[in-house]
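seq:
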Amino acid sequence: MWVHKVSHESPPPLPGGYTAGEQVYYTGKSYTFESGDRLEHGKQGEVVGPGTGESHRGKGVRVRFPGNEGATNCWLNQVRRRRANDFTLHPIGKRAA
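struct:
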């Protein structure tokens, strides 16, 4: 890494309150890019920074998913901190086994 690219200051906060290194789950529709990289519904990935490009700036984060060559821009409504099935509703007084 080049010295002029290093800072003593903390980076600005990421959209959605996410932090670099945080594990998230992709909740959008599965998709395969021409490069072969894939977005798979329910797959876990690691937040690596803010969304880039005009369309995602301030509205998304970049996520690296296992098996993909690079990080992918994801809208904030396409990622969450917990698996979708962690939000299953149960009748009052009943708990999941």
